[in-house]
Amino acid sequence: MRHVDRIAGVGLLDGRVVDVDISGGVVVAVTEAVTEAVTEAGDAGVDITGAPGAAVVDGRGYLALTAPAEPHAHLDKAMSWGATRPPGCDLGAAIDAWRAFAVTVDQDEIYERARVAARRLVSNGTTAVRTHVDLHTEGDPLRGIRALVRVRDELADVLDLQIVVMVRDEDPADRARAAIAAGADLIGGAPHIAPDTAAETHRLIDLAEELGTGIDLHVDEFLDGDHGMLTAFTDRVASWEPGRIRTAGHCCRIGSMDATGQAAAATALSGADVGVVTLPVTNLYLQGRTECTSTPRGLPPVRALLDGGVTVAAGADNVRDPFNPVGRSDAIETAMLLVVAAHLDMDTAWHLVSDGARDVMGLPPAGPVPGRRADLLLVRASGLDDVIAEAPADRIVLRAGRVVSARAAVVVDPFLTQASNRSSVLQEAP
Ligand SMILES: [Zn+2]
């Protein structure tokens, strides 16, 4: 993976065409494009062949975006749909199917699926992932954590990987402590499915405070009632020091509240500096299955939360597992769903899967701006509408100024001779 010194002639979201200079993994200058400096590299648009001198990527025809970040994944579950095939399609059925399968898998099996899912994310442009990882009741309770630590070590050059240990109410505190000692970064869990939601919420926050970690909880992943979790969470972490990670995933219930309830939730979340992660593909799949009329979407009210000053990010959650049988491991898919299901404009949708996601994850800012880390997605497109509508295949992914994936579509026109067809750079897997 060669360091890139310059991306030449690339487009920005504001319409400018610029040269982006990179040094030490950071964008150091963004200036009006000097076209004669561009190396002619043909249709593929990439010259990273290792020739002596400066490494220049021909960015003509591409748009430079902040590389996406995935703020809420379950890489230990990913790609298990074929092996699990739950009989039902709601959250309870998915949990039952996963737990039945989980007792049969070892560390290597989890590692293999997680690695495939992580690599797919990178090849689509994502350079940072936060994954939740289950503890296990039978066998080694930490085998999922160990598998993901191995993936993190192996892909350290191409991906920032944060590991959240999913602590269940039946897990003793020592098991959670062991998971953090084994390499997990954050305490997590889903207290809304515990018998005593408020008590479990407090227990997990106690653990995070004892261990000096941040926390990322599944919050109110349902549509009716009140388990008393949101205020228990926000009241406790409101006094935490600035910058200490506190994240609420899902928050589906807020979306079924009236406007007054939504405003109160937004005030509590923003006051406690809790970042919210909405997960459209999985919650559109899991939620609202008992409502045949005006079926709810199962998403939090993203626009109302943003207007209330809440930091919001968006991710995919589950990918091709009992909780969601579909998904492409592609942030552009999530952005598209935010446009159609959360009614966001394109710019806001993209912000939630890129800069907003990095913010919720506590990562330094990235993007084609001087002083920011050179985590960039170059995608062949004329504008963000092109990106979100088409999800173009031609993408170049930089992480800290190095190309970690480059791929282009092979275009075959059956009405042209074979020699006229373009075949270009194929994917370089991380
Ligand atoms: Zn989740």
Please, could you describe this protein's structure?
This protein has 430 residues and is an alpha/beta fold. It contains 15 helices and 16 strands. The protein has two domains: 6-66 and 367-420, Urease, subunit C, domain 1 (Roll), CATH 2.30.40.10; 69-360, Metal-dependent hydrolases (TIM Barrel, Alpha-Beta Barrel). Helix 6 packs parallel to helix 7 and helix 7 (229-237) runs parallel beside helix 9 (259-271). It is globular and about 65 Å long. The N and C termini lie close together (9 Å). Bound molecules: zinc ion. Residues 72, 74, 132, 218, 249, 317 line the site of zinc ion (ZN).
Task: Describe how the helices and strands are arranged.
Elements (H helix, E strand, L loop, with lengths): L5 E6 L5 E7 L2 E7 L23 E3 L3 E5 L2 E5 L7 H4 L6 H12 L4 H18 L3 E7 L8 H12 L5 E8 L5 H9 L4 E4 L7 H15 L2 E6 L9 H9 L8 E5 L1 H4 L3 H13 L3 E4 L1 H7 L15 H6 L4 E3 L16 H11 L4 H8 L1 H6 L15 E5 L3 H7 L4 E5 L2 E6 L23
Parallel strand pairs: 1-4, 6-7, 7-8, 8-9, 9-10, 10-11, 11-12, 12-13
Antiparallel strand pairs: 1-2, 2-3, 5-14, 14-15, 15-16
